[in-house]
Amino acid sequence: MMQSKKILLVDDDPDLLELLSIRLTAAGYETVPAESAEAAINYLDISRPHLVISDIQMSGMDGMALFEHIHRHIPTLPVIILTAFGTIPDAVAATQRGIFGYLTKPYNPKILLSQVERAIDLAPAVDTISSKVPAPTWRKAIITRSALMEDLLAKVDRVAQGNASVLLSGESGVGKELFARAIHQASKRCEQPFITINCAAIPEQLLESELFGHAKGAFTGAVREHKGLFQLAEGGSLFLDEIGDMPLLLQAKLLHALQERVIRPVGTAQSIPIDVRIISATHKDLKSEIQAGNFREDLYYRLFVVGLTIPSLAQRGEDIPLLANHFLRVFAEKHQKDINGFSPEAISFLLASSWPGNIRQLMNVIEQSIVMSAVPLISSELIRDAMHKDEEQMISFEEARKQFERDYLVKVLKITAGNVTQAARLAKRNRTEFYKLLQRHQLDFTLYKSLQEKV
């Protein structure tokens, strides 16, 4: 059975909200009602609909302010505005800023359904944070329940359908190769080779031969003809990791290959046509490298047709318990250890850490802890020893800025699936104080109960 498309409806008039919901439900859509823009933002913290339909005039935050929030934080999510006759000029101006469309009240049901269908077809964002529908094969290796990651995966799905070069950026250890592989697997090239090379790991004098190949006798030691990675990746994708470390001389040859869609093996005058999609990655700021004279600007724009930034683990803290338990299962089986889980203190320590090495560091810490554990439960002491540092403490609420405080609360609610008792205990606050914090930030803990994964 095909999953119904989910639409978030926002209107402070309950009767109009119900009428709109009835019409869209009858057309086969799943609707989620929100009686204010603030409630809509609260919902978007934990889930992703396919479309938002919002009234423009509401008490408190209006529809345009809601759109600006969505456009800033979830740019791939389409928004349709409902407007009275007098606000049509504002609505028309809004379409120039990114709103998908607008409808005047009273709206024509046929026009409404036409716009809804078109918006969802053009921007198929999928809510997989709390969905029971199995994830597509291409993204099964990416473990997450983070709204930030879901937005990125929606972009990956869209980008994968074309052939444009993609530049992945992000800190070391965030999983850039995993995303490169996902782009390839989601694309029409998925049946063809996916070839990877770390440009920082191969000596400069060998890198050209690895990429473009060489003829027999091209240099000392070239005893036979050698096919380069471009030829091996023919019809598929070539992932150039740490592209920011590629030597300048080779950058020029790579640029020529991308412009002309041909390569020339070392030691030959033969040009070989290529059909390869380039996915590259770096942890460096390439614009700064360009200014410093270390990276070619023309190559940068060849690689940066589409750019995707992978968030750090600290930005997706709600994924830490999920990833930790996944790595526990993997490494317990690998090392044949009977490990059942983590102590509450160990989970708290994992959540309190900053993870400068990101997922790679988390994976290494979990594996080391499993290897050293003599009991079925991983303790905070084992985690701390593996990280080679003293335990970090959560930043106090009094010291945190307002935005950090709200983000903190959202993460805690996600981690505990809306269980206020567990959330208050994790935040080291009593229930009464915790409820007040939720009210201050207009957070509805009941919305988080749909999350299935728990600590």
Describe this structure in words.
It comes from Nitrosomonas eutropha (strain DSM 101675 / C91 / Nm57). With 455 residues, the chain is α/β, with parallel strands linked by helices. It has 4 domains: 6-122, Response regulator (Rossmann fold); 137-309, Rossmann fold (3-Layer(aba) Sandwich); 313-387, Helicase, Ruva Protein, domain 3 (Orthogonal Bundle); 402-450. The protein has helices at residues 14-26, 37-44, 63-73, 88-95, 109-122, 147-160, 176-185, 204-212, 229-232, 248-260, 286-291, 297-303, 320-334, 344-352, 358-372, 380-387, 402-415, 420-426, 431-440, and strands at 6-10, 30-34, 51-55, 79-83, 101-104, 166-169, 194-198, 237-241, 262-263, 272-273, 277-282, 306-309, 341-342, 377-378. A hairpin with an 8-residue loop joins strand 9 (262-263) and strand 10 (272-273). The two termini are 31 Å apart.
